[in-house]
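Protocol step 4 of 6: structure prediction from sequence.
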Amino acid sequence: VKIKKENTPVSVETDLADIDPEEIARQLTILDHSLFKQIKQWEFFGLNWMKKSTSESLHSMGESANIKNFTNNFNKISKWAVNEILRGETPKARASALTRIIQIAGHCRDLNNFNMVISLLAGLNSSPIARLHQSWPLIKNRDLLSE
C-alpha cells in the first residue's frame, strides 16, 4: 500500500504486514457501505449500468453511475489484492501476503461484507495468483486461524 499526499516531497510506504487485517477489513467495509448506500432504486431498472452511455439509453435521472462506482470498487480491490501478493519477491513473501489477504477476507465475512469477500476471492482466483505453485503450499491452516 503506497500512500502519497499530492504536492508533498515525502512519500510514505506502508507494507501490508504492518496493518492489522481486521482494520483493513473494517476500512474496506466502510468504503463499500458508503458506495452501496449511494445506489438508488431506479438505477437497477433497464440494466443501464451494462449499456454504453448514449442519450437514448439513459434513465430520465441519468445513468447508473452509483452501480458503476460500486462495481469499479469491487474490481479495484480485486486488483489491489493481486498486486499486494505479487509485490513479494520470494515465494515465502508471496505466501505471507496470500495469508494476509485470506485473513482480510475472513474478517470481511465476519463483518457480513460478502461483496468484499468475493472481491478478494476473485483476486485470489486470478490466473497470476493461481500460478504461484511455490507459494500456495507454504500457507498453513494455523496461520489463517491466528488472527
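Step 5 (inspection) to follow. The helical segments are 21-36, 65-86, 91-110, 114-124, 127-130, 141-145.
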